[in-house]
Amino acid sequence: MFYRRSGILHLDYRYERQLWPLPFDRLLVATVAILLLAAPFVVNRLYLVAYLLPWLIWSSAALGLNLLMGGAGQIHLGYGAVMAIGAYTSVHLVRFGAPLELAMLAGGLASAAIGIVFGAAALRVKSLYLAMATIAMQYIVDFTIVHLPGVSGGVLATIQVPMVRFLGFKIEGDLPTYYMALLVCAVITLFMLNVDRTAVGRALAAVREKDFAAEIIGIDTFKYKLLAFWISSFIGGVVGSVLVVCYLRSVSPDQFHLDLSVQILAMVLVGGLGSVLGSFFGAGLILFAPIIFEGLIGITAAALGVQINADLKAHLPLMLYGALIVVFLLVEPLGLAKIYDNVRNYFLVWPFRTSRT
Amino acid sequence: MDLGLLEELTVTGALVGAMYGLVALGIVLIYKTSGTANFAQGAIAMMGAYVVWAFAGAAGLPMWLAIAVAILLMFAFGVAVERTVLRRMIGQPVIMIVMLTFGIELLLRGVVPGFLGSTVKRINLGIPQAPVFLGDMLINRAYLIGGGVSAALIMAAVILFNSRFGIIMRAVPDDQVASWSVGIRVERAIAVAWGLAAIAATAAGVLWGSIQGVNWSLSLLLIKALAIAILGGLDSIGGVLLAAVLVGVCESLATGLLDPLTGGGTRDMAASIIIVTTLMVRPYGLFGQERIERV
User: Fold this and answer.
1) Closest partner residue to A121 among B115, B271, B279, by Cβ?
2) CA–CA distance from B175 to each of A152, B95, B190 (Å)?
3) Which of A90, A137, A174, B194 is deepest in the core (most CB within 10 A)?
4) How far apart are the first and last CA of chain A?
């Protein structure tokens, strides 16, 4: 119907290597891009700041983690700590008067440098150990940030971020912040879309599928695992700095606890491992599901005249994250992206049935 | 440096460590039989404590009965988790299974306090408050009993694994197909391991719950248990006991000696640092078997 085409006919190599070979996909991407660009003038400011902006930033973070988990098949339970390193580095640089462009890059580099240490410790053994090393990293980084007054300014301190400029534009108010987040998100998305088509991306995929098989066909497994760690941590650091410098405009240690890592992990798993589109879906679901669910429960409770106690309400997000992770891993391990893909494949040859693969 | 304080910290640390070791025991049991780590162990410990509280505090059963009921229920819960969730993941990459158990951890951490209340609950095991004097050391009676019970349970697990039943359990991870062919029910062995792990977690949860009260923070035992499991070697039950004592002592010394300098919080750091150092120096732990991968 929407995508209808008969057979696959690649006339030349360029056609075969296109990101979006189908006109419908190109149209869809263009529409979404235009909608996102026009959003500040269409959407209510409140929705823009409360929903669209966090969604863009969390999607960027999920993309970074997805490169590591979906692209290279390495687990990371401490992504929040990675973002924290980037955030604090850039905040301090900005406060010292460094331009934001440099501060963001430095934040990314700092995250990558520290993140790679923990990765290197665990990568000598199997993925199981990586999970433990990264969870330890989360605690160690949390502790270090809180207990170094030079970094956090104290246990309960919140550091305000001064006015910043990016490429000459003042990042102040909703509009520039939104476009800044959109720009970073777009750059990361383009990178992620293209990394699969490069030698690095293919090497990572080989490592993900079977690391010793990859080793045998001449891929330096250790190097590529570390590289994945490095890139992913770099993205995490940059996103952390965007989150703090542009969006929250202040930073305190409790923003980056294990909860954040868990959220981003849930985004990646629910959205779909290794899928760019999935990261956006996952971020959307994980961010908004608790809000919607809470609203629904509130309405139901009001309709039935039942009082929902505060404990239940407070633990709802955690329940949802856990349930979503478990259900998706059991039912659809490739997440929302796979569901979208199934629907798309169905319509691709509609009214005929796709062969079940 | 006050030598008396040092001794006291060491003894207390060893006892506390043994209690952490109970949680680690579950992780090791499951790793030993099924080859995957259980990241839900902390939440299962918390759930066990909540169940005991629900029967003893809320339903008014006597404590021994409440604990017995809780142990039965938690065994069933462990078996059920394996049967309904983990078994469907057989053959999937380890990373998936690890994330699944982590998902279960989150789910339990939300569901249990969400429905049973997140305020701190008391479990009264009837241990007197008065400390015990060992020479000139003051030892908290709850730690003494808790540590003793934990060490006994870990030793029981060691003995269990040397019995006929234990040989069956050990055969399973060695070669699942081969154990199948000699008549071992592989699925049942793994399910039993999950049940036993849940029991160990419950015991730990109750002991800790009686000391610090029952709330979600019991699930933080996970990180300590992971440190012990890694340090002792993921597939060594005997290693758990030694590693537990080591981790406990490190933690206690860190709390006693470093906390005044850093302003608190080193307690939770000790476990994390032990994990990272072990991975760097000796990834398979003190007594763990080095896994050689065959292509």
Assistant:
1) B279
2) 51, 21, 13
3) A90
4) 21
Angle between helices A335-348 and A276-304 (to 10 degrees): 100
Note the pLDDT of residue B292.
64
Boundaries of every domain in chain B: 3-281
Q: Token pair 């990241």 is at which residue? A: B39
- Reading the block at residue B161, the tokens are 């694994």
Residue A11 domain-assigned?
no
Work out whether the CA dihedral A241, A245, A249, A253 comes out positive or negative: positive
In a domain, A357, yes or no: no
CATH code of the domain containing A232: 1.10.3470
pLDDT in tens, A149-177: 777 776 667 777 777 777 767 777 778 88
CB atoms B95 and A73 under 8 Å: yes
pLDDT confidence tier of residue A40, bands split at 50, 70 and 90: confident
A205 touches chain B (CB under 8 A): no
How confident is the model over B139-167, as a mean pLDDT? 86
Q: What is the mean pLDDT of residues A109-128?
A: 83
Q: A168: alpha, beta or left, given left = phi > 0 and alpha = psi -120 to 50?
A: left
Among all residues of chain A, which has the CA nearest to that of B36? A128
- Does A136 contact B98 at a Cβ distance shorter than 8 Å? no
Q: How many residues does chain B have?
A: 295
Residue A7 domain-assigned? no
**Which residue in A263, A190, A279, A224 sits closest to A72, CA to CA?**
A224
Kindly report the pTM of this predicted structure: 0.88
Give, in words, the CATH class of B3-281. Answer: mainly alpha
| Nearest-angstrom CA–CA distance, A313 and B115 | 10
Do the beta carbons of residue A72 and residue A197 sit within 8 Å?
Answer: no
- Between A345 and B67, where is the model more confident? B67
Domain assignment of residue A56, given as a range: 23-348
CA quadruple A239, A240, A243, A244: dihedral sign: negative
Torsion angle, alpha carbons of A60, A64, A70, A74, to 10: -150
Q: Do residues A237 and A116 touch, judged by C-beta distance below 8 A?
A: no
d(CA B81, CA B69): 18
B276 to chain A: which residues are within 8 Å by CB?
118, 121, 133, 136-137, 140
Structural domains in chain A (count): 1
Q: Is residue A2 part of a domain?
A: no
Q: Which of residues 94-113 of B touch A (CB under 8 A)?
A: 94-96, 98-100, 102-111, 113
* Complex ipTM: 0.85
Distance from CA of A316 to the nearest CA of B (A): 7
